[in-house]
Amino acid sequence: MGNQSSPEGFLLLGFSEHPGMEKILFLVVLTAYLLTLLGNTLIILLSVLDPKLHSPMYFFLSNLSFLDLCFTTSCVPQMLVNLWGPKTISFLGCSVQLFIFLSLGTTECILLSVMAFDRYVAVCQPLHYATIIHPRLCWQLASVAWAMGVVQSVIQTPPTLRLPFCPHRQIDDFLCEVPSLIRLSCGDTSYSEIQLAVSSVILVVVPLSFILVSYGAIARAVLRINSAKGRRKAFGTCSSHLMVVILFYSSVIAVYLQPKNPYAQERGKFFGLFYAVGTPSLNPLIYTLRNNEVKRAFRRFLGKKWGLWGEVRERCLHAF
Length: 320
Fold this sequence. Notes:
Blueprint: E1 10-12, H1 19-49, H2 56-73, H3 76-84, E2 88-89, H4 91-124, H5 129-132, H6 135-161, E3 170-171, H7 178-184, H8 190-223, H9 228-256, H10 262-289, H11 292-319
Parallel strand pairs: 1-3
Antiparallel strand pairs: 1-2
């Protein structure tokens, strides 16, 4: 069969088999997207404006927030259009979405492992933390995470888009991603499946294993702390990141490492929705609700804003 990958566009089926659910999902996705924009923008602003948050932990957190903003914006607007109206996407739009989605997803896998390394040094090597995790290393680690995302996308996007797609061009998903495009192919997909499996091991299993080893060492270090207050403080510095890791990797594994059967495919769509929309909106809530430093920075930020507003109001009253 000849290559069917001409720029004709695709039909994103999404949850069209549940038409009554689509309008509800539209409201849920829109709400989650607005929360993502608000929460992650706030974290970036606080990390930049508050001097007390100028530390490696919040540098990496602001990177994660910026990544989540880009991640959701690459797919949610198209998803909202498809849930409310036409379900088509152009070949170019699908290509751009696939490239960005792959790149940012890979970057987040690496960035979460970098953040685990930061927490490991903070808990297990507190006296050497400032020496080991210095600003230059922070920039280098963040750059490596972003660069690996781009490299992975450059490697995997072109072969996926060159697959011989079936004439109906119906993607049984709500966005363009590698597993759903492989399922759309009517030709030999063995190379793409091997490539997906190898990249999943390298970019999902290996970083996750590194995170688990890091937290194993952190747990041993925390248990050696004599005071209960010290243990709570040490655990508090890691609990938010650990929750984000659990949410992110559980959904990624459900999407990219699922068995081949109709039930797993249907379940994978819901996990994919949570992976694309849920985790980016929950991350800011997790970090703000469980992190006292972020909450104090937010109160200081509000205090400055209200103070400035009060000063402006007083000057206006005196002027008139």
